[in-house]
Amino acid sequence: MSKAATSYAGDGQHTASYYAASANPAPVRPELIGDQEIDICIVGAGYSGASAGLHLAEKGHKVAIVEGAQVGWGASGRNGGQVVNGLNASLQTIEKRYSRDTANFVASVVQEGQEIIREKIATYDIKCDLKNGNIFAGYTDAHLRELEARKALWESYGHHNQEMLSRAQLREKVGSDVFSGGMIDHSGAHLHPLNLVLGEAEAFEKNGGVIYEHSPVLSADTEAARPVVRTAKGAITCKTLILCGNAYLGHVVPTLERRVMPVSTQMIATAPLGDALAHEILPGDECVEDIRYILDYFRLSADKRLIFGGGLVYGGTDPADIEAKIVPNLKKVFPQLSDVKIDFRWSGNFALSFSRVPQMGRIGSNTYFAHGYSGHGVTGSHLFGRILSEAVDADLSRFDTFAKVPWIPFPGGRTFRVPYTVMGAWWYALRDRLGL
Q: What is the pTM of this model?
C-alpha cells in the first residue's frame, strides 16, 4: 500500500496561462464520491491518461479516469504545444546504450505519436489550432553537424521527413540573425495543447468513459489483485489500474517517485503582434526549438502572439520572476520585440528520467504505469497511451519491449538528485555558451 497525496497546489483550477485563458468550453465534472467499481481505472487526465482511456473506451472497455485537479491541469495543458517526433534521448544514444534492436524498435514508433494526435483531431473534430512544421535551430557549426548526423541517422532507419536549412534558408523561416542554420521536420507540428487534451477527454466521454475531477489520490493499493485507488471522498476498485500522474503523482507510489524528478520550465505569451510583425518573425508559422542543452522554444498562437519558453528549475519549483528568466532570451532572438508587452507568464513541471528515456512498466500483476517523457511528452504520451491500452488487451509485444529497457537511478538518490543534476546542467550550459 502506498500512501500520500498527489501534488496539487491551490484550488485545482488551471494556472493563469494563455492556454487557460483561450481554452474551449469544458463541462463541470464530478468529484469521486463513495465507493465505486470499474473494469479499468486511470489516474491522471493528461495526455497519457486521455490517450490510454480513449483507446480503451473506443474498444468498448468500461473506464474511469481520476484527476486531482482538472483535465489537462499539469504538463499536458501548460507545455509549449510543439509536436516533436522522437524521444529526448536520441536514436544514436539508445542504440549505443541499449542495442541496435532496441533502437530499431524505437525508430519504428517515433513518429506514431504525432500520427495518433492527427488521427484523433480528425476523427473527433478537435479544435486545437493544429499547424504543420517543426524547426530545430543551431547556433554553431557544431550544432549543424549534430543536426546533419541526426538527419542521416533517421534516414538510415527509414524516416525521410527532415530537411537541412542553411543560414539563409533558416532566415527565410525565422526572422532572427542569431542562428547558423537548422533542420525542419515536415511531419512535426504545433497546436494549443490544453484544447487538444480537452477534446480528447470529450471524445473519451462520448465513448462511455467517466472522468472524476478535483479528486487527488491519497493512496493506491497497487499490489492487490484488484487494485484500489482512494481519494478524500471516495474509492475505486478495479480490475486494472493505470498510473499516468507523471510529474504530479507526488508520493502516492514511492517506487515510481524515485524513478523521475519533477523539473519546471517557464513560458510567456506576448500581446497579439498583428499580421506584419508576426510574419516578420515567423513567416512560415512553424514552431522552433534550438538544440542547446538548456534550450529555448517558440511559436505563434492562432491569434498571433509569440509563445516563448525555456529555462529549467530542477526539483519542480517555480522561479520568483518568470519574465526576468525568459524575456532576455526572447530579446536576444528577436530584438525587434524588445518593447513587446507580455500578457501571460506561467510555469509547469515535466518528469525527467535520468536516462532521458520514458519509462513504462507494471507493479504487481494488474497495475501499469508510464512516465518520464523528459520534456518530449506531447507525442510520447500519446504513443505510450496506445501501448498501455494494447497491454490491457493482452497484447504485450510493444509494452514488454519498453518495460525491459533498464532505468537508471539519479546519482545521490532522492536527497541529492537535484544538486547533482544542477551540476550536470551547469556543465552542459557552459559548453553551450562556449560553443563546444
A: 0.90
Backbone angles phi, psi at 189, to 5 degrees: -165, 180
Residue with cell 536516462: 355
- What is the per-residue pLDDT across 146-175, written as a single tens digit (0 to 9) for each? 999 999 988 988 889 999 999 999 999 999
Under DSSP, the state recorded for 266 is E
For residue 355, name the pLDDT band (cuts at 50, 70, 90).
low
- The separation between CA 231 and the C-alpha centre of its own chain, rounded to angstroms, equals 26
Grid coordinates belonging to 124:
473527433
Instruction: Return the C-alpha cell found at 232.
Output: 478524500
Distance CA 49, CA 16 (A): 23
Strand partners of residue 307: 269, 299
Q: pLDDT of 242-252, one tens digit each?
A: 999 876 777 78
Q: What is the rounded CA–CA span in Å between residue 339 and residue 333? A: 14
Closest CA to 266 of 190, 325, 339: 325
Sign of dihedral through CA atoms 134, 88, 313, 19?
positive
Instruction: Enumerate the β-bridge partners of residue 260.
Output: 353
CA distances to 42, 279, 332 from 305, rounded to whole Å, are: 35, 11, 18
* Alpha carbon 302 to its chain's center: 20
**Closest residue by Cα to residue 260 from 425, 373, 116:** 373
Q: Which of 47, 42, 45, 78 is nearest to 381 (CA)?
A: 47
Across-strand partners of 298? 288, 308
Lookup: cell for 262: 519533477
Question: Region 44-73: what's the mean pLDDT?
Answer: 97
- What is the model's pLDDT at position 95? 74
Please give the C-alpha separations between residue 228 and each of 5, 41, 71, 220, 359, in angstroms, as whole numbers.
Answer: 15, 9, 21, 6, 23
Q: Which residues pair with 243 in a beta bridge?
A: 43, 369
At 314, the pLDDT band (50, 70, 90 cuts) reads low
Task: Give the list of residues 6+ apart from residue 102 with CB closer than 8 angstroms, or none.
Answer: 94, 95, 401, 405
Q: Which residues contact 409 (CB under 8 A, 6 or more apart)?
A: 258, 259, 354
For residue 121, the surrounding DSSP H or E stretch is helix 112-124
List phi, psi (to 5°) of 159: -105, 125
Which residues touch 160 (CB under 8 Å, ≥6 apart)?
154
- What is the chain's Cα-based Rg? 21
Contacts 24+ apart (CB under 8 A), 425-430: 425/293, 425/294, 425/312, 425/314, 428/293, 428/294, 429/292, 429/293, 429/294
Q: Which three cell numbers stand for residue 69?
A: 485537479
Can you state the angle between helices 112-124 and 377-392, rounded to 10 degrees? Answer: 80
